[in-house]
TrEMBL record:
Keywords: Glutamine amidotransferase. Transmembrane segments: none annotated. The lineage of its organism: Bacteria, Bacillati, Actinomycetota, Actinomycetes, Streptosporangiales. PANTHER family: DJ-1 PROTEIN, PROTEINASE. The keyword Glycoprotein does not apply. It comes from Actinomadura chokoriensis. It comes from the Bacteria. This is Type 1 glutamine amidotransferase domain-containing protein. SUPFAM superfamilies: Class I glutamine amidotransferase-like. Residues 8-180 form the DJ-1/PfpI domain.
Length: 184
């Protein structure tokens, strides 16, 4: 186990229901194994109901909520996917503002699969190069991003480092890039 993220606290922003479990748990484990402290942030307190595609999976305790948290408590942000998760988050102005604040503060952000929907709503993808689940490419282009079909994309053309990946099959490369981006 490395200690690359020692003393780093990483926010994982998720809706109370609809997060793709593996897109939460694998980056979470990578952050922990690198010595970091992941924290689950949501729009409500209680437990998060994760999913394995369309099937209910495990539940996870929520550490804090967006209405009482801000970017100053964290060194970076991860936005897992799942279709319902970012679709819910992008309709919550406090969650959108929370995500936007990491860009405004120049802190690294990592996003996978459908997660970029929250960033589109936050209006922070303009001029950025990123990837996502293929069905989001038009949304990202319309929001001003350059979409690429790659396992992982690291974009430094903006106020922060933005790491993005397409799908669960990309998680190994995504997790490596997440740790690298957050240790800076």
């Amino acid at each position: 186990m490395s200690n690359d993220l020692h003393d780093k606290t990483i926010a994982f922003l998720c809706a109370p229901e609809g997060t793709e479990q593996v897109e939460l748990t694998e980056p979470w484990t990578a952050v922990e194994q690198a010595g970091g402290r992941p924290r689950l942030v949501s729009t409500q307190s209680g437990r998060l109901q994760a999913f394995d595609h369309l099937d209910r999976a495990d539940t996870f305790p929520i550490d804090t909520t967006v209405d009482v948290s801000d970017h100053t408590e964290f060194d970076g942000l991860v936005l897992p996917g799942g279709v319902a998760n970012p679709d819910f988050l992008r309709t919550d102005p406090v969650a959108v503002a929370f995500a936007r604040s990491f860009f405004e503060a120049g802190k690294p952000v990592a996003v996978i699969c459908h997660g970029p929907w929250t960033l589109v709503e936050a209006d922070v993808v303009r001029g950025r190069t990123m990837t996502s689940w293929p069905s989001l490419q038009t949304d990202l282009r319309n929001a001003g991003a350059t979409w690429v079909d790659e396992e992982v994309q690291i974009c430094e053309d903006g106020p922060n480092v933005l790491v993005s990946s397409r799908k669960p099959d990309d998680l190994k490369a995504f997790c490596q890039a997440v740790v690298e981006a957050f240790k800076r």
